[in-house]
Design a protein that fits this description.
CATH architecture of the largest domain: 2-Layer Sandwich
Largest sheet: 6 strands, mixed
Strand content: 15-25%
Structural class: alpha+beta
Number of helices: 11
Shape: globular
Order of helices and strands: HEEHHEEHHEEEHEHHHHH
Number of strands: 8
């Protein structure tokens, strides 16, 4: 993240697209050798709650603007959604594209032939010619018993979209790796237009002013097929998001610490939105992973009882 901001600010070309002035680098390839180091520990750029919400929105196969708007208010904008449905949402294309679950299809292909070069998820459609999605395709290969992933993007907003995309796509990479029965390998993020809007330069400068952050990795996803746990987490996310006056005793939390911690992050975000500082502090103590616990505790320390709006405004 730090290196990407520096390159765009120092070497980017000034452009004026429809959304306002920006600096752009064209033809960028980002390589992550530790894909589990997918969340920034910056006070200015930590976005784990909204990124997790967006990932689960994808995996649910939904295009519902209210569902994702709970985490990212940008998606409620009339320019982005029509009649409550997000234009070009990735979820339906991932999970039910022409009645095909592309994620499951890739998993089955790699189980049958780990050397295949055809394990590709297509997000671009020829009917999108006037409004193509930012992400065009996701490709997966197994080499030396590790799942390598390449994401191809036509355009990527460095300040808002890039952190979310790295989180969601490397999580999908790890989900597919576990489903196939291999470890996670390198992640490659290929972008046509990697850009930073001028309105976000001041915030990017604040991020750079924090200096370099140590690479802290998320815990590894447990071995074995993850889909039962994913479906349970999707149901729990919906319950948390739609319920009122919810206490931790009302949650049927997963047994495994990895999935339980993700559920507690979702519950923690609800507490942040509702300004329930004491309950948030108690929730932080229940999180087993020091990585996740520190994120929630940071919110206790930083936000106190101030009611949050959407975690990411974009």
């Amino acid at each position: 993240m730090h290196e990407a901001y520096g390159h765009v600010l120092d070497k980017g070309v000034s452009i004026t697209p429809t959304n306002g002035g920006a600096k752009e680098l064209f033809g960028v390839l980002v390589e992550l050798r530790q894909p589990r180091a997918r969340v920034s520990r910056s006070q200015n750029r930590e976005r784990v709650f909204s990124a997790l919400g967006e990932l689960l929105w994808y995996l649910s196969g939904s295009d519902d603007a209210e569902q994702i708007g709970y985490y990212v208010s940008y998606y409620k904008d009339p320019a982005v959604s029509v009649d409550g449905h997000v234009i070009g949402a990735y979820g339906p294309r991932l999970m039910q594209y022409d009645d095909v679950n592309q994620v499951e299809a890739v998993i089955q292909m790699l189980r049958k032939n780990p050397d295949s070069r055809n394990a590709v998820i297509q997000l671009f459609d020829h009917q999108d010619s006037n409004n193509a999605p930012c992400t065009l395709a996701l490709q997966f290969v197994v080499r030396e018993r590790k799942l390598i992933m390449m994401t191809s993007m036509r355009s990527n907003d460095l300040f808002w979209g890039f952190p979310h995309d790295l989180f969601a796509f490397t999580m999908i990479q790890e989900i597919i790796a576990r489903s196939v029965g291999v470890d996670i390998g390198n992640y490659y993020h290929s972008v046509g237009s990697l850009h930073l809007y001028m309105k976000d330069v001041e915030a990017a400068d604040r991020y750079l002013g924090e200096g370099w952050h140590d690479a802290v990795t998320m815990p590894a996803m447990p071995d074995g097929d993850p889909w039962e746990q994913i479906h349970n987490l999707l149901a729990l996310e919906k319950f948390i998001r739609l319920s009122s006056s919810l206490g931790i005793q009302d949650l049927q939390l997963p047994n495994h610490a990895y999935w339980r911690d993700l559920a507690l992050l979702l519950f923690g975000y609800k507490l942040i939105r509702e300004g329930r500082k004491d309950d948030l502090a108690e929730t932080a103590l229940r999180i087993e992973s020091s990585y996740f616990r520190s994120i929630v505790q940071d919110r206790v320390d930083r936000h106190g009882s101030r009611k949050a709006t959407s975690d990411s405004q974009r």
